[in-house]
Specification:
CATH topology of the domain at 3-194 and 225-251 and 293-313: Rossmann fold
Strand order of the largest sheet: 3-2-1-4-5-6-10
Low-confidence stretches: none
Helix content: 40-55%
Number of helices: 13
Number of strands: 12
Radius of gyration: 20 Å
Largest sheet: 7 strands, parallel
Order of helices and strands: EHEEHEHHHEHEEHEEHEEHEHHHH
Shape: globular
Distance between the termini: 51 Å
CATH architecture of the domain at 3-194 and 225-251 and 293-313: 3-Layer(aba) Sandwich
CATH class of the domain at 3-194 and 225-251 and 293-313: Alpha Beta
């Protein structure tokens, strides 16, 4: 028995692969294109372990997909591979359409052919698990109820539109062809191996370097924050017991404003690695908001708890402390991912703000 994971060298994917192999003897075939956000250093602990088979490749490569499926005959595919940064999607939406829409289509077609050739219990047990985001639901008013699985799709960025399209493809392949799929829509993840273009790791690495901490607009954009380890356990629960064709929201029950997140990170750094120059909050800098910035996301995760008994194990307070401590103890990883390409991106995104 084997599972195929796409995007398993990225932030969430690598955490999932590490968690999976820490808890199971079932091997993982890990397909990742190793774009800027894919990092084999995330998987260094698995080097030399036969249960982890890494393949560098693109989900848009149909011949490669067919070969992997025929060779390894996975019982499930867990699909993380995606372009996932809103700001990057504003600067260059084409890559998001290619990977998130065209890539998911190609993967679905390859998996459909593989699944159709199975028989008996093997065919019945097969699963395609599509990992998506709460951003497909759009933006919530301050007092509006949290997103449920039946909330209308109202994507507001090229990124969220591309993920919404991929969600619709997965649903259609289930209803049209019978492909046994489940979909999960998660809230904002944070934790180890998070590429420092996103809010929490960017604040940590900038603060430690004495650089400005850029806060978009007034900093009152609200997100539900989910520790990545909890997300991984939620995915395992849905993969094991989710109803076919269903969507499950995975959230942390932690609505926080961006500015509050930044201040919390600063306070933890003041405690764990104080700066001789003074409190890190002195570095907070308000910059021009990004276009179409959604004001609030919130996940109603009662369905997954009701049906599968899943709840997050971490509070925001425990999860954010673990995260800051991880970055403080993994300076080499941080230095290695801040390449010339990363510096060029930061300059392009923030210089004009």
């Amino acid at each position: 028995m084997t599972i195929l994971v796409t995007g398993g060298a990225g932030f969430i994917g690598s955490n999932f692969v590490l968690d999976w192999l820490a808890q199971s003897a079932e091997p993982v075939v890990n397909l990742d294109a190793l774009t800027y956000a894919g990092n084999l250093q995330n998987l260094a602990a698995l080097q030399g372990k036969p249960a982890h088979v890494f393949v560098k490749g693109d989900i848009g490569d149909r011949a490669l997909l067919d070969s992997l499926l025929a060779t390894h005959r996975p019982r499930a595919v867990v699909h993380f591979a995606a372009e996932s940064h809103v700001d990057r999607s504003i600067h260059g939406p084409g890559a998001f359409m290619k990977t998130n829409v065209e890539g998911t289509f190609t993967l679905l077609e390859a998996v459909r052919q593989h699944w159709a050739a199975l028989d008996g219990d093997t065919k019945t047990a097969f699963r395609f698990h599509h990992v998506s985001t709460d951003e497909v639901y759009g933006s919530l008013a301050p007092d509006a109820p949290a997103f449920t699985e039946t909330h209308p799709y109202e994507p507001n960025s090229p990124y969220s539109a591309s993920k919404a399209a991929s969600d619709h493809l997965v649903r259609a392949w289930h209803h049209t062809y019978g492909l046994p799929v489940v979909t999960t829509n998660c809230s904002n993840n944070y934790g180890p191996f998070h590429f420092p273009e996103k809010l929490i790791p960017l604040m940590i690495v900038n603060a430690l370097a004495g650089k400005p901490l850029p806060v978009y607009g007034d900093g009152q954009q609200i997100r539900d924050w989910l520790y990545v380890g909890d997300h991984c356990s939620g995915i395992r629960a849905v993969l094991a017991g989710g109803r076919l064709g269903e969507t499950y929201n995975i959230g942390g029950w932690n609505e926080k404003a961006n500015l509050d997140i930044v201040k919390t990170v600063c306070a933890l750094l003041d405690e764990l690695q104080p700066s001789a120059a003074g409190p890190y909050a002195r570095l907070i800098t308000y910059v021009t908001d990004r276009p179409g910035h959604d004001r609030r996301y919130a996940i109603d995760a009662r369905k997954i708890e009701r049906e599968l008994g899943w709840r997050p194990a971490e509070t925001f307070e425990t999860g954010i402390r673990k995260t800051v401590q991880w970055y403080l103890s993994h300076g080499d990883w941080v230095a290695n991912v801040q390449s010339g390409g990363y510096k060029d991106w930061v300059a392009a995104n923030y210089a004009a703000r």
